[in-house]
């Protein structure tokens, strides 16, 4: 019997660590875009780096499916039914339409009205003038917003923070190490995710029995063209909203404060002209997309950027690289709030375009407005370099700041 030999990847093709930020990653992505807009690695996985090709794949869900069962066993099907981001049409179309029906304009407006208030409440509770911005503010604002939407009691939020942190600890495994790949998969699929699912199942069962005013009760009752969600679909959709809407938005706020620390001129401009904040948020979203890459699975043999991709291939679409593609954004590695960055792909594109994009932008805008109003200066403390999770989400573990109250 011959021993199986794992293929090894040329180290020059492995992405640099993001533990201390993107200073190595951005030049590496520039080299990848120039040399291999679409790269096939020795495992047969494809990595797409250029804006046009990323957008093309996102616009073609028939060929580039979001459903992992095309390449992986069905074992996790119960875990994913209702999770919009891993579904294809027609099931995706049904769940998205029902979710949109439950996310009524009145519910969105009520939620928006709460965001500024929640931001003020969190700042009222900040301990002293030196603190960790992540644990005191940026993690909590989106979590409180999405949990109010879902009707999760405040007392349970620390449990959600713990589960989220456990998920973030799952590092992007070294593809040259089978044990690391396996451990990462097990931890991601059968650890905190299952516990969250049990929690949400309990909440949904309670709301099914005793409906009250709230998004989940609306979701359980919403009917579009005679179709409703099954209980496990509603549970998974709720988890998806919670996961998708928490660390992503937290990451925007934390990265924004880091950018202000690097660009005091931008901070000064935003203070004198707060109308610039939405453009600055767009640029921050472009510069450091909280979800740096998306996954797709080919349903058929296809071609992208001149590269043949066989059916049943795993394809990674780098939103981070697309957002730094010099063909679309001049001088892409500079942070420039005047560039008009709204074309970024940070919220995806096509049928899976982020369900919460408007909410996320409102959170960022109100969060930053509240900070600039409350503090006349926000200084990112030098000392230890800021450390980031090495997960599928790009977000700092902690950002120590010193503030002066206005
Ligand atoms: C800055 C914050 C956010 C970022 C960067 C972000 C990013 C994304 C991206 C890239 C996708 C596309 C996934 C794909 O095509 O595979 C997506 C989808 C999604 N997002 Fe967001 N998101 C954010 C905030 C939110 C919020 C606040 C919510 C809800 C409360 C939310 C809910 C969702 C849902 C449900 C989907 C799946 C949509 C579908 O597949 O049809 N997101 N998000």
Strand order in space, largest sheet: 1-2-8-5-3
What count of structural domains?
1
Show unreliable segments.
none
Give the structural class.
alpha+beta
CATH architecture: Orthogonal Bundle
CATH homologous superfamily - what is it? Answer: Cytochrome P450
Bound molecules: protoporphyrin IX containing FE
Distance between the termini: 73 Å
Question: What share of residues are in beta strands?
Answer: 5-15%
Count of helix runs? 17
What's the overall geometry? globular
What is the number of beta strands? 10
Q: How do the SSEs run, as a string of H and E?
A: HEEHEHHHEHHHHHHHHHHEEEEHHEE
Q: Name the average pLDDT.
A: 90
Instruction: Kindly provide the name of the CATH class.
Output: Mainly Alpha
Radius of gyration: 21 Å
Helix content: 40-55%
Sheet bearing the most strands, described?
5 strands, mixed
Keywords: Heme, Iron, Metal-binding, Monooxygenase, Oxidoreductase
Family: Belongs to the cytochrome P450 family.
Organism: Amycolatopsis eburnea
Function: Involved in the coupling of aromatic side chains of the heptapeptide of vancomycin.
């Amino acid at each position: 019997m011959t021993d199986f030999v794992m293929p090894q990847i040329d180290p020059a093709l492995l992405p640099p660590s993001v533990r201390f930020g993107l200073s190595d990653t951005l030049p590496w992505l520039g080299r990848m875009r120039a040399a291999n807009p679409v790269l096939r690695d020795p495992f047969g996985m494809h990595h797409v780096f250029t804006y046009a090709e990323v957008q093309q794949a996102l616009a073609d869900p028939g060929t580039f499916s979001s459903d992992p069962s095309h390449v992986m066993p069905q074992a996790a099907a119960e875990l994913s039914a209702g999770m919009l981001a891993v579904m294809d049409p027609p099931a995706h179309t049904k769940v998205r339409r029902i979710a949109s029906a439950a996310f009524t304009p009145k519910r969105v407006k009520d939620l928006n009205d709460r965001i500024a208030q929640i931001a003020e409440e969190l700042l009222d509770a900040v301990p002293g003038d030196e603190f960790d911005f992540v644990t005191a503010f940026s993690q909590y604002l989106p979590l409180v917003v999405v949990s109010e939407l879902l009707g999760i009691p405040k007392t349970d939020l620390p449990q959600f923070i713990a589960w989220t942190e456990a998920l973030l600890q799952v590092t992007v495994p070294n593809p040259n190490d089978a044990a690391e790949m396996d451990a990462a998969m097990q931890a991601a699929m059968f650890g905190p995710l299952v516990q969250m699912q049990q929690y949400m199942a309990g909440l949904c069962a309670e709301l099914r029995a005793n409906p009250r005013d709230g998004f989940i009760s609306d979701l359980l009752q919403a009917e579009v063209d005679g179709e409703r969600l099954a209980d496990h679909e509603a549970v998974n959709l709720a988890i998806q909203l919670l996961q998708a809407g928490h660390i992503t938005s937290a990451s925007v706020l934390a990265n924004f404060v880091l950018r202000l620390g690097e660009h005091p001129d931008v901070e000064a401009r935003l203070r004198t002209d707060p109308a610039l904040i939405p453009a600055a948020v767009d640029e921050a979203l472009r510069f450091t997309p909280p979800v740096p890459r998306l996954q797709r699975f080919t349903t058929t043999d296809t071609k992208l950027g001149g590269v043949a991709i066989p059916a049943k291939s795993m394809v990674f679409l780098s939103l981070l690289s697309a957002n730094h593609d010099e063909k679309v954004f001049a001088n892409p590695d500079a942070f420039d709030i005047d560039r008009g960055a709204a074309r970024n792909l940070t919220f995806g594109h096509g049928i899976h375009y982020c369900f919460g994009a408007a909410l996320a932008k409102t959170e960022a805008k109100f969060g930053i407005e509240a900070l600039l109003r409350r503090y006349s200066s926000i200084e990112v403390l030098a000392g230890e370099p800021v450390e980031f999770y090495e997960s599928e989400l790009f977000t700092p573990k902690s950002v120590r700041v010193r503030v002066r109250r206005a």
